Amino acid sequence: MLLQGKTAVVYGGGGSVGGAIARAFGRNGAAVHLAGRTEATLQSVADDIAGAGGTAYVDVVDALDEAAVDGHMKRVVERGGRLDVSVNVISDQDVQGTPMVEMDVEDYLRPVATAVRSKFLTARAAARVMVPQQGGVILFFGGQFDWTVARKLSVGGIGVTFDAVESMRRQLAGELGRHGIRVITLHTGGLPETIPLGYDGRDEIVELLNGNALAGRAATLQDVGEIAVFAASDLARTVSGASINMSAGAAVD
């Protein structure tokens, strides 16, 4: 078990991506603290982790609320004594489906503001625990956005969101590296499983994501969980300030 004895927080842990990461963490021995706004979905993931013999806690937390984030981090440390891994996947799949020039400014900026604020607050809370420990891992999700998809798919503000978060990742890695804290992005190139059934244009999006992959298929949620485990583990101790490319060749470095 690569994460045996470690404590992890997953913000957005009740969603498809957050849930996949949380379940993989649990399978690999981490005590997982699931944070989000919907208790029922968080509890469902926690039940899966517990059913597989793992440890999970559920906390209803608004990651846009500064006091709520800081208060929750205090509870996490009280439970486990430390924090080893912090993952935030909030507002990472919000493809809005409207051409940019047809959008209201508030709608365009919504995913940008949501992701940047929540990731700042959660990363800051994590770093304030990890710095005295002289170690820890902060994981983001998304990677550098492939703007060529805008020819076929109206993405709204999500592309700018990804690029803004990547800038934050680089800054955090630079500031926190001397304290033994690693900051990494998981870059998938898009996940067909996260496109809701019945979503207008779903088939076209899935075909696009799979077609862009050199391997002929895009990454799966299981892939995301397993790579997240590796990134959070000591096996990846030399990886920081980087984006781990798990796009199946959709993004060629």
TrEMBL record:
Instruction: Alphabetically list the UniProt keywords.
Output: Oxidoreductase
Which CDD domains does the annotation name?
SDR_c
What top-level branch of life does the organism fall under?
Bacteria
The chain's coiled-coil residues are: none
Q: What family is this?
A: Belongs to the short-chain dehydrogenases/reductases (SDR) family.
Name of the protein in question: SDR family oxidoreductase
The protein's organism comes out as Dactylosporangium darangshiense
